[in-house]
Fold these 3 entries.
Entry 1:
Amino acid sequence: MAVFEHASWICGSLHSEDGCPVFRKGFSVLKPLSKAFLSMSALGVYLPTLNGGQVGDQVMAPGWTSYDHRIQYQTYEVTDLIGRDNTLSVIVAKGWYASPMPGWVDTPDKKRRASRHTGLIAELEILYADGTEETLVSDASWLVAGSPLRFAEIYDGEVYDASFESEDWRPALVFDGPTRLLVPQEGEDICETERVAAKEIIHTPAGERVVDFGQEVTGYVEFSLVGRKGETVTLQCGEVLDREGNFYHGNYRSAKAELVYVCKDGPQTFHPILTFYGFRYVKLSGFPDGCVPSQFTAIVVCSLLRQTGRLSSGIPELNQLFSNVFWGQKGNFLDVPTDCPQRDERLGWTGDAQVFCKTATYNFDTERFFKKWLKDLALDQRPNGAVGQVIPDYLPDGEPSAAWGDAATVCPWQVYQSYGCVDVLKDQFESMRSWVDFITHTTTRKNLWTGGTHFGDWLGLDAPEGSYKGSSRDDFIASAYYAHSTELVVKAGHVLGKDVSSYEKLLLDVVRTFRETYPTYLTETEHVLALQFGLTEHPKETADALAGMIQKDGEAMRTGFVGTGYLLHVLGTYGHGDLAYTLLLRKEYPSWLYPIGKGATTIWEHWDGIKSDGSFWSDKMNSFNHYAYGSVLDWVYEYAAGIGHEENAPAFSSAVIEPHPDKRLQWLDVELQTRNGVIHSAWRCQGDNVRYTITVDMPARIIIKGKAINVRKGTYTFWS
């Protein structure tokens, strides 16, 4: 029997409502039990308990997918939770399904989604010791009532009344829900992954009490107190303090990001259950006097990813940067690669994912995570092949942009390169091809991409006054990515054994036309893209010109989202590794280490999110947990530590290790767990000499100062 074959979708109301219903089903087990399995999904997010015990350890199930095309369901073994007389209870909230997202627009599509009512579908399969089976399904026999969770949304948080008792139970309403869209869970579990103790409680100049956890996280706060029934406490989230040391919430924009908790009598411990927040600081209102840090714990919530990369160096600030990148990834890899976890956004921006994808695959095992998200990208791809700005596409009226839509080609190819997963290319090839075809059919000039509306080099530091876009030409960036995506379609086609001869010809035509149209490059990012994508006929001259521009600017970069991720790579590749290290280690604005001096514990959206005088860049768009610029770490893995592989040897089946030390670091130690074993590359500067220690679990070519040696599994030490 197929899962949910006889189950019905049930709800408390056929209209959108702020309250969060709780569904209940009682049942008895009168024979010896062998196994029991509960399958469940929701329109919204759900929290199931069986006889008071939580079912499974997932948070925010069933996760976030392109709900118009597919909805995941989970299956849990619940054998140990079942007794003779049992009660299954499930609270359902809006989640990503029906919260008013995004916060800054008011479109028909947003209204459509926000007006949807929530719902539940469930099936309990009971296997008895005598070989017989029994199945209980969601139907009109289930009861529904209001729950203590009085309100829950993604942006605004929760209102929870611990003194509330569910009553007025009534039969659940059965409705015709999207059963045909249900699929087994494909993404990683979303779980509580770690706990961060409160560092201190601050009494601000404004007279507020603020809990500082010392680390920006995504998740929620667990707190304990002794209260009286009806007393209300409020916890509001913030990322930073202002320059006077007061709590700051302005950059959350319209998102309240708060928990309102109504107490019951006596000692109590609570944390939110069907939402999440991004925060380092929490402002307390109505909390009993005399509270201490031990009463508060930040619980980290993210997709359950196995860490595969580790980096450390001789410079404390650089080590903090490494930490910030990892925390930024954890905070934004909550089922979907989001731009930020805190304000009224939290969307799967394709440009951010494209820029960061390589670093993401090195830091953590993200194969399953990206495969699930890329399937949603393909499902949400428009009939003409266009890819939305965000996936799931909650901005369907948004114009497709170069470097954003190119996530359709860049991310599958990188997942294949990192993990050797041919399936991702099989699954995504039509999406990859359709994206390139979209460009071909909509451009205003053949063999270039012109005439579109793009984000350009977003947040480029060479932006004209009043603009978020850098000074690089939109058509230049779009055409460069046109060439790059076409090349990736060709490469994927070769791996899959497909005829891509038409795309091979297209690639030659695009590169030729690009070179004819753009014989000179105007900005740092234009130089970077011409080098990275093999579009310049004179790479050494182009790299020298790029280096000259940077040096003329006082050894400071001027690139934005598009150029920054490749900047150090092209400098290192074409003989300017010293300058690449200078940019990495620079402490003044703009730089990766400037935010470290301002107390950053994650990557910022703007290099100067907090300015030198302590003021803020802006309230409008100033996230302090935005992972895109963390893409610098793939340069540390690949150039500084030298860990790489040939393109035709994905998943590091045959490694190439060529470290590039710099005395300013003193030492560097990097480990990467690959599908074919561990690679460990370390070097230490000792006077004028460098000691290299390299361990590999696979055949490798080790290159030290231009001299190569072929090795097999083992540890090797070299001096130079």
Note: The chain has 15 helices and 34 strands.
Entry 2:
Amino acid sequence: MTERPALSLDIGTRKVVGLLTVSGPKGLKILAAEKIEHTTRSMLDGQIHDVIAVTNVVGRIVEKLTAKAGAPLTEAAVAAAGRALRTFKGSALRELSGLTELTHEEVFSLELEAVQAAQASLARLLRDGEEPEDYHYVGHSVMGAKLDGVPIGNLVGQRGNHAQIDVIATFLPRGVVDSLQAVLQRTGLEMTALTLEPIAALTVAVPQTMRHLNLALVDIGAGTSDIAITAKGSVLAYDMVPMAGDEITEALSEAYLLDFNVGEEVKRKVGKGGSVTFRDILGQQHSVSSTELVATVRPAAERLAGQIAARIIALNGGQPPQAILLVGGGSLTPGLPGLVAAAVGLPESRVAVRGRDAIGGVEGAKQLLSGPDSITPIGIAVAARDNSTLGFAYIHVNGRGVRLFHPSQLTVADALLAAGISIKDLQGQIGKGFTVTVNGNLRIVRGTFGRPARILLNDQPASLESQVSHRDSITVEEGTPGEPGRARVADLVPQVSERLRLTVNGAPQDLSPLVTVNGTLVDGNQELKDNDIVVVRAIRTVEDVMLHLGFEDPSVVEVLRYSLDGKTQVAQRPRYRIRLNGAEASLETPLRTGDKLEIMPVGPITLGQVAASLMQEATAMHIRVNDRLYELTNGAGELTRNGRKASPDDPLADNDTLLVSKAGSDPIFASLLPLIGISPTPPAGKSRLIMRLNGVDAEFITPIKDGDIAEIRWE
């Protein structure tokens, strides 16, 4: 069966190149090639601005190649400009159970979560008027993975508490694809393969066998310079500089007042040497040497080289690559390789322009496709043949249509990403856990496992990596998250075998260890929460026993401040009186099995206790007067609290103000006169009062005391 020729189109800023190819003995055989330049600036910086004008050029290409094919051409492979690419980094972190190994499916799911994080970054940095739906996800690369914060090569089969994956994802504006499709549809073509211009150039100029080297490929077209960086066997990054060959053309046009198309012709003749003759917009003819023309465009060439060098250094981690390959028509700018080498910091020998000679395994059309501008057109055809283009499909996800583009075979995961389905929710996340500290050791309380989502592809069970085809239908029943972690004290405290058996206030007690949470005594049913601190210890002292048995905090000593006759005083009262095996004990006294403990509440402090030194009880004195025994009473002082009369038995309160009145004055000799019935006024016929105390003459104010002997009479 004869192979049907394939059509590929390089729709560039300056021209359109069409190739008709089949498989050849060496790889790819070009049956026919056509190249037509745009007559107007219908494309700028790789973006189609005039669909009708570009369609006319493409239609002419297709018409010529159809005639050579001998059959209608209905399909085409194309490339999108590298300028349209936008790359963003994303990271995903997932809590693990620590008990089971990570599966390939779980790791892949985490990878896709990181892609969605990159999509979120894209959404935050959209330009005015843009929406996240305006971009196609076209691929990603894993930058690294971590397990419990430590970098690791492969997460599959690992166990841990946390897994992380970092990716760099690439997105393509839908407008770029839509404009390409609009042109193809107007020419009766269906897009069967889509690649990116830097990927196409890389496919043929830097094959896989060269990608272990740190290389930079720069495709310098008319409007943009697309850049790709390789190292360690893979492509590290894609980017572009919004400057290219048009910058040189515009420099010539401005310097010599040239129509843009005339300036383009002059630019192409500069590299051939000699003089170049041209006519400006005023009709004046000029003949200028190539040397002068090169000097004229040198500032523009230096700017272009500087922009390219800056992007290469930034993409390559701040250092120059091992070598730089320049392709595309703009790479023919005189002196450009040397300027790029100087700007990057490489020897000029490490920067080279590559043309058709850099491509192996391709035959045909060598006359039309020979220079560096042949790299991308041939690369598009090779990528389409090798299926290394962006896969294309229109898929329904939960009834909603989405269009997919991806560098490899399309999968369910690609469709879900395009539809905005949360990959994180698909896995039925483990319920949120928490941590507590038990006797200084960190313990993790994990949530329960969730229920994974159910994915149906055309009504059949499928996985994230199941392959999808054009017009497939996907139904997703979202997973449910697990329950948050829960734990009681009894679930986590260590078993302490040491128990204490003793008698407390006559009752036998068998006491288990004490458990506190954040310093508060609790029982085994206490629910724990995040960051709780649990302490478990055996009972060893009197205080431990009292805490365990629920006595009100025994360590608290009641402190009462009061004023007594104007002087500030402090009284302290412990809550309990403690006796251990019949002897006084303190809260710190250690215990052992078999001990007998008595714990007695201490009563309140009374007013009489704190004022005893100032209050005297009423006392009786016995005095012998004139040989007869008499009793004389001395009264006590009076107590007031806060201005009111109080009893010595009343309890003392904080901030009381106490006053004690003086007791009756000490008895004096004059106190005896009324006791024995003698008046201090002399009776009739008497004039002198005899007063003796213990045989000595006394006066009215002479003090008397218990046991004294007095003599009183009138003479």
Note: The chain has 15 helices and 44 strands.
Entry 3:
Amino acid sequence: MLRKASVFLCLCLYLLVATTGAFAAERPNVPARKNYKKATALLEHFIQRELQDKKLPAMSVALVDGNQIVWAQGFGFADPEKKIIATAQTVYRVGSVSKLFTDIGIMQLVEQGKINLDAPVSTYLEDFKPANQFAKPITLRQLMSHRAGLLREPIAGHYFDDRQVSLADTVQSLNGRELIYEPEQRVKYSNAGLAVVGYALETVAKQPFTDRVQSAVLAPLGMSSSSFELEPRLQQALAKAFIWTYDGRVFPAPTFEPGMSPAGNLYSTVVDLGRFMIALSNDGRGVGSPVLKADTLAQMWQRQFPNGEPGNFGIGFMLGSLDGHRVVGHGGAVYGFATELEFLPDEKLGAVAVTTMDSANGVTKHVVQEALRLMLEAKSGKALHAIPATEPVSAELIRKVAGRYGDGDKAVDLIQRGNELYLQRCSGGTQMRLRRLGDDLVTDDRLSWGLRISLLDGGIKVGDEILKATAVPKGTRLPVEFAGLVGEYGWDYNILYIIEREGRLMSLIEWYEFEPLEQLSRDVFRYPRRGLYDNEKIVFTRGADGRATQVEVGGVVFKRRNNETVRWAP
């Protein structure tokens, strides 16, 4: 009797693994489970519409309900030139979603008693010596919740650095660099910080970072098509990705791997990321063995440092809500790829989407959230909602509403570019395309979705803010001493633009982030307290003729490019 029960149990376990892992891996796509067929049909139609409207080459999506991947599908072409169709088994770079696996590797060592999250990092890394001008030491808990106050990018091995730089050299390049904020006081997103976390994992485990995460994290999760290194078997299935610019250029994304690998260099598939969410449903148990204890996972989903400025990070995981449901997960953006992974712990539902157009996180997040809403409705037996379709803004309306609204830091411009209308906050941020949704306008492009703009007599309402139509100031000129700073800097694949706008010096960095610069001295400026380079200094070096030869952002040096004019303008 006992033997028969054991055989039956083994058969059940085999079927579970087959459904959630190995069997799914044999098929290019996973068909929808019966109770989700109507929901996924709506989602398919929506995704196809998004690919066409946003001109996305490829996208893959997976949905998880408890112990099962209930649907996984590819759309478009993983290689548009060769017409290779994208599937659920297509390999993508998933950017900062990688951080979750680095952090899980550290939490395993915490469970083993080998690491204390609240001990100074110097306990484990004697050669990590940033210039900490504050009394509070840097800890792993701070680094994993982006509360350490470090620069966004390391000095070597940073996002723009196409050289082969070791993880050790990447971390040591931070030595002597001052913190931007006091530890624990403010969330400042830092890729450099996760490089330090990965190096601590490597050092304490006495094993190369990539090997350790592969054997201790990815393998137990059943993520057999994932790695922090581009192995030949993965390279064969890797999708081609693309960069786009505000001025209409599209070109192949670079493929180099920055030295801060633990922060963003995971290669994976949506099926593998679905297996990861199955483990989240199972209190940290992978397909073959526990990866983390349930209590450890719960700790990672708790907001850290509640006494500091508000933040939305647990340990590694970003925390949020969707229509009142608790959400944990992470997004990712790395040269040509954009990823969104979101999991509802209380309902044990998850969704992940990846696309091959740079920073198209507005789309992947929209897809994932609509997928979760449909899954919640399908599971509860409610009527499925229709995903709203936006429409182009008419030429007549564009001419009518284009202009400046509000003043000071609240001012926005509605800008006509070709036959499209865009919103640009004068205080900085990304440019966002506007579309019609009923009687309102709504942001709807690769970068953003969902900000409502209502049209009023003599003004507009942006979110909850009412802004009156105003005139654009005229005659304001850039101070003479700034003229030599305007120009293009950096690499072909990632140009930093320094431009003038209404008498102010502005920066366009990482293709889409547009920010005003605050002058601290003749050649030293600072970014605002927000955005990618939150409060970091930007320092120009001039030649004998007064013209800048380079600019340093944080610790990253951008050399002036040879062209005489700036190709991009707001």
Note: The CA atoms of residues 211 and 448 lie 36 Å apart.
